[in-house]
Amino acid sequence: MGRNGVDLSCDEVVRLVSDYLEGVLTHAEAARFEAHIVMCDGCAAYLDQMRETIRLVGELPETSVPDATWNRLRSVFRDWKQSGPQQSSSSTLTDTAES
Amino acid sequence: MTAPAVEGFAAPSAGAKESVARDMQVVAAILDGDEAAFEALVRCHHESMVRIAVTFVRSRAVAEEVAQETWIATLNGLHKFQGRSPLRSWLFSILTKRAISRAIREQRTVPFSALSADDDDPLVSPDRFLGSDHPLYPGHWASPPRRWDEMPEARLLARETRERVLAAVDDLPPAQRAVIMLRDLQGLDAPEVCELLKVSDGNQRVLLHRARAKVRAALEAYFDEEAA
Predict the structure, then answer these.
(1) How many domains are contained in chain B?
(2) Domain range for B71
(3) Measured between beta carbons, which residues in chain A are less than 8 angstroms from residue B53?
(4) Residue B47's closest chain A neighbor by CA?
(5) A63–B contact, CB cutoff 8 A
(6) Residue A71 touches partner B, C-beta closer than 8 Å
(7) Extents of the domains making up chain A
(8) Under a CB-based contact definition with an 8 Å cutoff, are residues B23 and A99 in contact?
């Protein structure tokens, strides 16, 4: 590959891919990264695979909540609804004080 | 999803304002006694909470308890929620505080930073690149990845693909798993995750990078094995 900004090797691009996606590369670094991607099918595929991976992780299904948990949480919810916040419950206040 | 993560939550963007409004609606509905709104919130976050809590307490049963306590604490503190940070960050901050204090009680105090220094395996096998002594293309692909968008779309949508993703996430070292779940599944931003897990920005990024790269590698292996 020619110089013209395309001076990263593919193994360097692979190392930089998260920094690129996170937007933490400088403008100059991002330009070098993109110049490489335009020229290199392998790295373009790698970048697409990384984006697809992020998308797939983001779409993992909501998994089922165990029945015992549902039963407990529903009864907690109903008690809470009847009596309002349980101020006596241990360390609840410190947990939520800063919002 | 890939927007620069440099902005904190001090200056909400237009999108952030919308999600604050949505959070406030959910909170108002729950405070109003709407059980369905509470159940929807639980369904959205409970499993992630358990998976993240287990990073600290090291037993699924204890993690399940920590997650349940978090919901109770959430209900009891909900009237104080003002939308200054997103509801999900608020939930996960209650969760991590509880998980850490439970870990301390159980004398299982493994500092999270210790969990992060857990591996330095190459993320892409070095033999997929040409050697640094290659005359023309040192460090370039010897065996480049295939394009996934040339596969039938159904492959990416298949239930088995999702199962592979989940298995790959579960196989990650705990700190990497917590970071990828908070960032890519729960949608928290980088500053939020650093604050929750008490890791530096650089460390968070390394954990995320390793986690994503390993999940990608697991998917590539799966797709290639199917194609073979």
Answers:
(1) 1
(2) 14-227
(3) none
(4) A63
(5) yes
(6) no
(7) 10-58
(8) no
